[in-house]
Amino acid sequence: MFEGKVIAITGAGSGIGRALALDLATRGAVVALADKDEAGLAETRRLLGNRAASITPLDVTDTPALKAWIDGAVAEWGRLDGIINNAGLSVVAPFADCPAEDFDRVMAVNFTGVVEGCRAALPHVRAAAAKDGVGWIVNISSVFGMMGYPTQSAYNASKYAVRGLTEAMAMELALTDPNVAVIRVHPGGIKTNVAKNSKRIALLPGQDPNADFAAEFEKNAPTTPEQAAATIIRGMERRQHRVLIGPDARFIDWIVRLFPVSYFRIIGNFLGRKR
Question: In degrees, to the nearest 5, what angle opens at C-alpha 2 toward C-alphas 29 and 128?
């Protein structure tokens, strides 16, 4: 299915983005990769060996540069069959303690970067799908796009926004461009750098300021980036509109569906026991 297809991936310098690039390339896809982390991006390119790929250092909040990256990939490879909007970051702070510039940065990377990635890629993906019968818009949300979580108001807001955008696009394109699969992805805990690189601003009363949250997250994350990538690609093959990654994502989906009003009390009780 992916032989000769050109797939653009943001956040390809590590984690899920790198794993997607490597997996798709082994299936014959051409991958156009972008990341703000130039060293990580170069390492992904090294791991790809002689497989067809291009790399572009990119901050997804730079909209003209993002559009230039997409247009450049089309110019280089002759087409664009899909985009995976994967770049993301987080800050740790209750809403009342989160500076506006930090909140806005999370929204700019996690949501506006996805919006502009879709905007730049969609005309090309539509054209490819009309010609060959398949195209993909894949947006990475989170389990935090399914439930609220304390100290994650900015991340929650951005990932719920990605979810809403992707659901609306899926409905629209099902009517106008049914060959374009629009997929929202909800990863649970993945062993990536997101937690390690999160900016910790403030905590809630009772939380240990000396705790190594990144190490704790790494220990408890049940899914590897490679497993996450394989699940996403399977969703692309099946043209699923929603992809859940990991047992924790499936559990949270179940809890939120069964207890849409009171799930926060269940989670609060769990957090209380963990402290």
Answer: 95
